[in-house]
């Protein structure tokens, strides 16, 4: 893929969660219902949407739209889709055995939104299928996370919600594939580039109150950053570069000569830490095996979200 095509292979992904645990939210709603039944709450206040911390936590990053063996995926950084601190808030107030079970699971945000680009809004309008809901439902999840140190995540769109991927194609996003990856060793000094959605390039737009909990307010076009490889870590799957990235670039592609060489993970002062492509392929293989298992079992997810 050429440089411009890679621009259309990245997706602005936003995880959302609540600042107040679900059990506490239920308690507050029951209190309001009881107050209304006793005549202590004005009907107008009861009917007005109540803010119980719903979708107040937002985690934004970049994901790569990827096509593998007829299936569509999002490839990104683990910390974009999962937050251990928030996971503990989510389970607060639940029975201890539920908290223990959740602590052992690979946890992700309960809902994800796709932030549209400026160009997309002008040409196609608001996304109609730009959300992924309840990825943790069911015994076999449509996502796979690496160990925290490797910081990778794969989401299977065809298992989670096919219309999400269909709309990306309709709006001229371009998925990359195996031919666009390179597992050749990263070379010191090599020039590389990355497309992503740094926070400084993203604007907030006003959404209708009814849509605020069901969409991302972020809008921005992907930004190009270039630099050189500054360190190759032969004792691990990582390398560093001097690409000028910031918060929001996490999960974005690092490309050399049109080939994916790794994913942006983090920034330490002027250096960007990335994980090499071969680790991403291992994780993708795990998720693909899960997808094939579910396909042969005839177990899919509904297109209705």
Distance between the termini: 33 Å
- Spell out the helices and strands N to C: HEHHEEHHHEHEEEHHEEEEEEEEH
Structural class: alpha+beta
Q: Assign the CATH class.
A: Mainly Beta
Strand content: 25-35%
Question: Mind sketching the topology for me?
Answer:
Layout: H1 3-7, E1 10-17, H2 22-37, H3 43-47, E2 57-68, E3 71-77, H4 78-81, H5 84-91, H6 96-104, E4 111-115, H7 118-124, E5 131-133, E6 143-145, E7 152-156, H8 157-160, H9 162-170, E8 191-196, E9 203-204, E10 218-219, E11 223-232, E12 238-241, E13 253-256, E14 259-268, E15 271-276, H10 277-297
Antiparallel strand pairs: 1-2, 1-4, 2-3, 3-7, 4-5, 6-7, 8-11, 9-10, 11-12, 12-15, 13-14, 14-15
Describe the structure.
The protein has 305 residues and is of the alpha+beta class. Helices cover 29% and strands 29% of the residues. It is built from 10 helices and 15 strands. The chain is globular and about 70 Å long. The two termini are 33 Å apart.
The gist of it:
This protein is of the alpha+beta class and 305 residues long. The chain has helices at 3-7, 22-37, 43-47, 78-81, 84-91, 96-104, 118-124, 157-160, 162-170, 277-297; strands spanning 10-17, 57-68, 71-77, 111-115, 131-133, 143-145, 152-156, 191-196, 203-204, 218-219, 223-232, 238-241, 253-256, 259-268, 271-276.
């Amino acid at each position: 893929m050429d440089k411009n095509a890679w621009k259309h292979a990245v997706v602005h992904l936003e995880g959302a969660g609540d600042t107040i645990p679900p059990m506490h939210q239920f308690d507050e709603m029951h209190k309001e219902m009881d107050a209304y039944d006793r005549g202590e709450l004005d009907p107008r206040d009861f009917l007005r949407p109540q803010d119980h911390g719903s979708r107040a936590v937002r985690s934004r990053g970049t994901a790569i739209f990827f096509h593998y063996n007829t299936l569509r995926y999002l490839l990104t950084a683990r910390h974009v889709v999962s937050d251990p601190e928030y996971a503990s808030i989510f389970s607060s107030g639940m029975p201890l055995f539920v908290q223990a079970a959740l602590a052992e699971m690979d946890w992700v945000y309960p809902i994800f939104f796709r932030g549209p680009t400026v160009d997309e809004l002008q040409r196609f309008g608001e996304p109609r299928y730009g959300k992924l809901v309840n990825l943790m439902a069911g015994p076999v999840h449509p996502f796979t996370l690496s160990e925290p140190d490797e910081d990778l995540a794969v989401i299977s769109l065809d298992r989670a919600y096919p219309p999400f991927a269909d709309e990306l194609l309709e709006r001229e996003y371009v998925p990359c594939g195996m031919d666009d990856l390179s597992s050749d060793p990263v070379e010191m000094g090599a020039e590389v580039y990355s497309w992503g959605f740094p926070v400084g390039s993203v604007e907030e737009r006003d959404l209708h109150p009814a849509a605020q909990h069901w969409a991302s307010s972020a809008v921005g076009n992907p930004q190009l950053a270039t630099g050189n490889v500054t360190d190759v870590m032969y004792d691990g799957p990582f390398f560093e570069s001097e690409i000028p990235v910031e918060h929001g670039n996490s999960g974005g592609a690092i490309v050399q000569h049109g080939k994916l060489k790794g994913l942006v993970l983090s920034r330490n002062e002027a250096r960007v830490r990335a994980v090499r492509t071969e680790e991403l392929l291992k994780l993708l293989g795990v998720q693909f095996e899960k997808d094939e298992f579910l396909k042969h079992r005839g177990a899919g997810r509904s297109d209705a979200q």
